[in-house]
Amino acid sequence: MALPISEILLRIFTGFLLSGIIGLEREGLNRPAGLRTHILVGTGSTLIMLTGIYVAYTYATTNTDASRLGAQVVSGIGFLGAGTIIKEGVSVRGLTTAASLWTTAGIGLACGSGFVIPAIFTTTIIIFALIVFQKINHYIVNRKHEMRISVVCNNVPGQLGSIGTYLGNQNVQIRQISIQDENEAVLRINFVLRLPLKATPVDILEGLKTVEGINEIDT
Questions:
Q1: CA-based nearest residue to 26, from 88, 78, 98, 87
Q2: 170: Cβ contacts below 8 Å, ≥ 6 apart
């Protein structure tokens, strides 16, 4: 039986509303994909799912599968999500926003198929995860130590690798790095490091002094 127009419009509005809630949270954090992008993804996914249902009903005699259009949304949204991912030095930003776009597409498909209660519940827990878990993450990150150091070392092959190996073994994350040539024999390497919770700057500095080839460490 064909869906009444009131049911179709209600599903589209629900997709619009739920995707807008997620987009509003992303917009408040100035993410690459914000309110309008999420609304377009969620509402468009709802319409595509409804179109699949309509086509399956209208052309029932041709063995049409209503889920085919929805499946294309799931695979196609990856290209849009990839556009929100930004690489900055050794770090990557935008993965959460890309995931939120993918989830919004799923919520839109659920609304389009009439799976409204699970769509509402999913939106609720996604917003909870984005807001509450972000605060928890900030609390954990703020407890980590971030330090800047400048290392003067021998300009020989593998020297930077030796330093990176030591830092990696200590679970120290290299946030930024820049290299300056002091002369042909000596390099100055500037690091911005993020230390794990249990490490202290003194521990890392003392450990770096044991790395062969390091002549001087400035903080």
A1: 98
A2: 196, 199, 203, 204, 207
Using alpha carbons, select from 147, 219, 157, 148 the residue that is nearest to residue 187: 157
Q: Strands 173-181, 146-154: parallel, antiparallel or unpaired by DSSP?
A: unpaired
Q: Residues 207, 170: contact at Cβ < 8 Å?
A: yes
Convert 168-189 into a string of H (helix), E (strand) and C (coil).
HHCCCEEEEEEEEECCCCEEEE
pTM comes to: 0.55
Q: CB within 8 A of 135, min separation 6: which ones?
A: none
> Do both 77 and 125 map to the same domain?
yes
Q: Which of 98, 113, 142 is the last residue of a domain?
A: 142
Q: Report pLDDT for 90.
A: 47
